[in-house]
């Protein structure tokens, strides 16, 4: 089916959507993005994604392409036009193009580029991958130092997923200065005893929207949460581990670098948090 996508004010069939070859998103990854999930045809955590988008734009001195209300309307219109019941809405803002290539930012009157499209993912919530759990490997974190800004510089995370695939695993956790930063496209946690451990927020990791919700829900459910640096060896010795992201919610991790966690199946804390999260997400969806 030909999707309807959004480009700079227009809703178009995907085959007719165009962006300039001089666009700085294309030439320099001078762009930020957000991914919002859709369940029951409604948006999950839209407000959180809109606030983080605004922050990413501010950190890069990039103009906002439109208001939050306009963004919400575009999201809803695309979900409706493409009949999405379960899936994702991808949004990207770039610094646009003044018709040439230059390292220096274009003049202030250059309009940002705004592109949105949907991805249909039936079975997103009831996912077989989450029932199986993910096998992960550890790799060095060689990304730039502003991982709190959600830019489209995704070559290394992509390579990380390929390294995982080559090793017969599903994903990779990245390590810097002896400590786990995060997954290639998710935040990382382990559980030992009744404590959930995850890295504190800083410029070293993306401030996950799902992370914020899951930590709040864990505390509401009387689970103990500790935000601190941790090593991959601690995670390997844990009872269980998991990741969070808007596109996979809470994903149990069943092995790290070939070492099985617990009995090698998804742990109870991860399973419970996934359930609680999905429950609340559906209730609050707009
Ligand atoms: N860290 C990284 C590097 C990511 O790419 C993502 C997903 N975009 C996350 C964490 C999780 O963030 P969120 O829960 O907002 O999807």
What's the short version?
29% of the residues lie in helices and 29% in strands. With 286 residues, the protein is of the alpha+beta class. The strands form two sheets. Strands 7, 8, 9, 10, 11, 12, 13, 14 and 15 form a nine-stranded mixed β-sheet that branches. Strands 2-1-6-5-3-4 form a six-stranded antiparallel β-sheet.
Can you tell me about this structure?
By secondary structure, the chain is of the alpha+beta class. It contains 8 helices and 15 strands. Strands 7, 8, 9, 10, 11, 12, 13, 14 and 15 form a 9-stranded mixed β-sheet that branches. A 6-stranded antiparallel β-sheet has the order 2-1-6-5-3-4. Strand 3 (31-39) and strand 4 form a beta hairpin. Helix 6 (209-220) crosses helix 8. It is globular and about 55 Å long. The site of 4'-deoxy-4'-aminopyridoxal-5'-phosphate has 13 residues, from helix 6 and strand 13.
């Amino acid at each position: 089916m030909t999707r309807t996508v959004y480009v700079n004010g227009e809703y178009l069939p995907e085959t007719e959507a165009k962006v300039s070859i001089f666009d700085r998103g294309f030439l320099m990854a001078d762009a930020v993005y957000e991914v919002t999930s859709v369940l029951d045809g409604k948006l999950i955590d839209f407000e959180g994604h809109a606030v983080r988008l605004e922050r990413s734009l501010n950190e890069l001195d990039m103009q906002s392409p439109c208001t939050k209300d306009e963004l919400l309307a575009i999201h809803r219109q695309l979900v409706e036009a493409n009949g999405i019941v379960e899936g994702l809405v991808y949004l990207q803002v770039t610094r646009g193009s003044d018709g040439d290539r230059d390292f220096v930012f274009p003049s202030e009157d250059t309009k940002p580029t705004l592109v949105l499209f949907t991805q249909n993912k039936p079975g997103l919530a009831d996912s077989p991958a989450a029932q199986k759990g993910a096998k992960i490997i550890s790799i060095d974190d060689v990304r730039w130092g502003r991982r709190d800004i959600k830019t489209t510089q995704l070559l290394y995370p992509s390579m990380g997923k390929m390294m995982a695939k080559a090793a017969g695993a599903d994903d990779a956790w990245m390590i810097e200065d002896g400590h786990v930063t995060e997954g290639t496209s998710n935040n990382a946690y382990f559980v030992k005893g009744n404590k959930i451990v995850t890295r504190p927020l800083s410029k070293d990791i993306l401030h996950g929207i799902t992370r914020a919700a899951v930590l709040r829900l864990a505390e509401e459910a009387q689970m103990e949460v500790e935000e601190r640096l941790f090593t991959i060896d601690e995670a390997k010795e844990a009872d269980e581990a998991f990741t969070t992201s808007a596109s996979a919610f809470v994903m149990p991790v069943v092995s790290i670098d070939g070492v099985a966690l617990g009995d090698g199946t998804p742990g109870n804390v991860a399973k419970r948090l996934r359930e609680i999260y999905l429950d609340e997400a559906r209730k609050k969806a707009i």
